[in-house]
Amino acid sequence: MFFTNIDAVKASDNAGVRFRPPRPDRSIPTTDEEKQEIVRALIEAIYDTSDTAEVGTTEAFQHRWVKRHHYHPSGVEKVAWKLLDKTIKLHRFGWMAPVYDETVMVDVMKTSLLKGDKYWTVIGMPALLLSRSKMNKESNKKKKARLEYARGKEK
């Protein structure tokens, strides 16, 4: 075994900074007004469906993002505030979140930001999220075509 108890694991997780931020960084917001402006922009970005990888005509997509019935607006705002807070901490203190699979982080990718997870992945690995999103879009197109074909054969 590598660790004698959970305290040893926690100490190992907190062993150091994985990324050191540049100093000083005057682009980090410091006032509530500056932070609110960024949060508003994040909320707008979360709701922006103009360049989504999903097909905008599905019932689930319409319910969640166009009609905005699935996520309460206060929940979306909370996500935006938490993203900003974690991003500010990243740029002030560096990356200190433990990462066990340095190459893929598959388990992290299985969660959803609006469920309260995946913040560090969004902040630290946006290119990977974009790549996965594009792959999912293509897979969903193929799945839709197969389902339509199967439904046609059932008739």
List keywords for this structure.
7 helices, single chain, 59% helix
Overview of the structural elements:
This protein is an all-alpha fold and 155 residues long. It has one domain (16-154). It contains seven helices and no strands. The chain has helices at residues 6-13, 32-47, 59-66, 73-93, 106-109, 119-124, 126-154. The radius of gyration is 20 Å and the shape is extended. The relative contact order is 0.11. Residues 146-155 have a biased composition (Basic and acidic residues). Residues 134-155 are annotated as: Disordered.
Mind telling me the C-alpha Rg? 20 Å
Low-confidence stretches: 107-111
Taken as a percent bin, the fraction of beta residues is under 5%
Count of strand segments = 0
Q: How many domains is the backbone divided into?
A: 1
Helix and strand sequence: HHHHHHH
Q: How many DSSP H or I helices?
A: 7
Shape field: extended
Helix content: 55-70%
**Average predicted local confidence, pLDDT:** 77
Distance between the termini: 59 Å
Q: Kindly name the structural category.
A: mainly alpha
Q: How is the biggest beta sheet arranged?
A: none
Region (Disordered): 134-155
Biased composition (Basic and acidic residues): 146-155
